[in-house]
Design brief:
Strand order of the largest sheet: 1-3-2
Mean pLDDT: 92
Structural class: alpha+beta
Helix content: 25-40%
Number of domains: 1
Radius of gyration: 12 Å
Number of strands: 3
Largest sheet: 3 strands, antiparallel
Low-confidence stretches: none
Strand content: 25-35%
Number of helices: 2
Order of helices and strands: EHEEH
């Protein structure tokens, strides 16, 4: 399965909210946390979905005004 990033943030709560919205719509989601464990101000969290669900995910995120 090929994964693509549909949302990037440095805030954990935002990535969790986006993931919950997508999962609620039946989208498979994977959060990739690239934040530094010592300094939480560095790095990003990427919300990834399967390539096949990319367009639908973007449409959903636009509906919820995340993009």
């Amino acid at each position: 399965m090929s994964w693509v990033t549909v949302y990037t943030t440095n805030q954990v709560y935002q990535s969790e909210l986006v993931s919950a919205i997508l999962e609620g719509e039946g989208i498979i989601v994977c959060d990739l946390n690239k934040r530094d464990s010592s300094y939480n101000t560095f790095g990003l969290i990427e919300v990834k979905v399967p390539k096949e669900q990319e367009e639908e995910s973007i449409r959903i995120l636009k509906q919820h005004q995340f993009l």
